[in-house]
Amino acid sequence: IPTVPAPPLFVVGGFAAVGGNAVAILAFRFLLPIDPARRLRSILIAIVRDLNIIAATDSLPLMEKCRIRTHHRVLRMLANAKKLDQDLNAIVEGGLATLVIGRNMLILRQAERSEGFSLVASGAIRETRLRLSAISRSGEILSVLEELSTLLSSVMEAKYMNLNQPTQAKIFISY
User: Fold this and answer.
1) What separation in angstroms does the CA of 154 have from each of 15, 61, 103, 151, 167?
2) Around Cβ 1, how many Cβ atoms within 10 Å?
3) How far is the CA of 71 from the CAs of 46, 80, 160, 174, in angstroms?
C-alpha cells in the first residue's frame, strides 16, 4: 500500500512555494536595485536586436511580433528615462525613430512581396541592417536610429510619390 502524506503537509508545501516566490520578488525589488542608466542601455540594445531581426527576416508574422515587442520596449524606455535626471528629448526622438524604422521596414517588406523586388527598397533594408550591426557602443544607438529613420522616411516618400527607380536611387544615395 503506497503511503500518502497527510493533508496538512500539502498545505505547508503550498505556503512554502508561494512564500519562496514572495521572498524572491522582495529580494529583487529591494536588495538588487538596478541603475536606471544601465536599464536604459539594456533596453536600447534589445531594441537594436529587434530591429536587426525585423531587417533580416522575410517572415511577416515574425516582423510584426518584433515590431510590437519594440513598441513595448520604447514605452519602457520612456518610462525608465523619466527616472534619469537628463534631457528627455534625445530619448523621445530615438523612441520615435525606432517606431518609424519598424513601421517602414514592415511596409517595405510588404511592398516587396506584393509589387515585386525593388532595388531601392532592398538597398534601404540592407543599409539598415549594416548600420544596426555596426553599432559598437550603446552611446551611439540613438543617433544611428535617427539617421536610419531619416533614410527610410526618404525612401518611403520617394515610393509614395511614385518616382521612377533611378530617381528613387538618387534620393537613397544622397543619404
Assistant:
1) 59, 25, 14, 5, 12
2) 3
3) 12, 14, 25, 29
- The secondary structure of the chain in percent helix, strand, coil, rounded to multiples of 5, reads 80, 0, 20
Residue 30's pLDDT is 73
Where the chain has pLDDT below 50, the residues are none
Alpha helices in 57-164 (DSSP H): 60-81, 89-115, 119-133, 141-160
Q: What is the pTM of this model?
A: 0.69
As a whole number of angstroms, the distance between CA 4 and CA 18 comes to 22
- Cα separation, 159 vs 78, in Å, equals 31
Pairwise CA distance, residues 99 & 62, whole Å: 16
pLDDT score of 72: 94
- Residues with Cβ within 8 Å of residue 55, at least 6 apart in sequence: 105, 125, 128, 129, 132
pLDDT of residue 173: 53
Can you give the pLDDT at residue 160?
64
Residue 43: CA count within 13 A, CB half-sphere: 25
Retrieve residue 68's grid coordinates: 510590437
